[in-house]
Amino acid sequence: MAKQRVTVCLPPCAPGEALNRAIAEAMAPFDMNRQDDPPDGGDGEWDYWYIASGWDFAVRPGYEDDPRIVRDGEEEDELRPRDRCDGGPKALLDLDADRVPVADEAGRRWDAWQEFSAGYPAALPAHHFWARVRLDPQQRYSFEQARAEYESQPLIRAVYADPVLRKRFGDDPVQLITPDRDAYVAEQYADVLPTWALLTLDGRWIEGGTHEYRAAFNAYLDELPDATVLVRVLYHS
């Protein structure tokens, strides 16, 4: 059992109790404790839920005190930044406030990596070495050997020798910083908004950890009418 977040998409509704009822109605078909069978024939998705997101929606400037903005969570007395929230009408949320800076930094990171890595022989990604461990039934090639060989490559050794470079490029930059700049930037952009699950306006529960899911999540939210209410909900499953 674990806690995950779902982004719930709702028709326009008033804040407060009306919003709570709308969320409850949208979530009800996926209750693990319901007496009838879930619509998809599964076992349900949650046994309890509440509004909470860590305020990871940005509020459009000028709407910080709009009563339609949703702010809730476990720590009622915790000081909350006025430009962050748990949800509200899409028109009041700045969906690009976090996505665009991440995409811009991804482009700069990609350019810096190309310039830096050009000064070294090409390196193999980490999974090349881990695969050799998995494919050796006699375990003559150990994980320690794989890690040593991976880190001994001049390019990787140079990254690991500088904490600043390692923080910027990651532990496996050959794998993670893809050759296609546009694809890399798009992937980083798509990672920002999605929660583990999405509950659509027409009542579909969609989840996944793939890039395809995250790209579809972004596209779906971008295409919703501005009056759509978006709320981050924490659920236990």
3D architecture notes:
The protein has 9 helices and 8 strands. By secondary structure, the chain is of the alpha+beta class. The strands form 2 sheets. Strands 1, 2, 5, 6, 7 and 8 form a 6-stranded mixed sheet that branches. Helix 2 runs antiparallel to helix 8. It is globular and about 60 Å long. The protein starts with a strand and ends with a strand. The model has no long low-confidence stretch (mean pLDDT 91).
Features:
single chain; 237 residues; alpha+beta; six-stranded mixed β-sheet; two-stranded antiparallel sheet; 9 helices; 8 strands; globular
How is this fold's topology laid out?
Blueprint: E1 3-10, H1 17-27, E2 48-51, E3 57-58, E4 84-85, E5 87-89, H2 96-117, H3 126-134, H4 143-152, H5 154-160, H6 163-169, H7 173-176, H8 181-190, E6 197-199, E7 205-207, H9 211-223, E8 229-236
Parallel strand pairs: 1-6
Antiparallel strand pairs: 1-8, 2-8, 3-4, 5-8, 6-7
Please count the helical segments: 9
Give the total of beta strands. 8
Shape: globular
**In sequence order, what are the helices and strands, one letter per element?**
EHEEEEHHHHHHHEEHE
Structural class: alpha+beta
Strand content: 5-15%
Helix residue percentage: 25-40%
Low-pLDDT windows of residues: none
Taking the alpha carbons of the first and last residues, their distance comes to 5 Å
Mean pLDDT: 91
Oligomer type = single chain
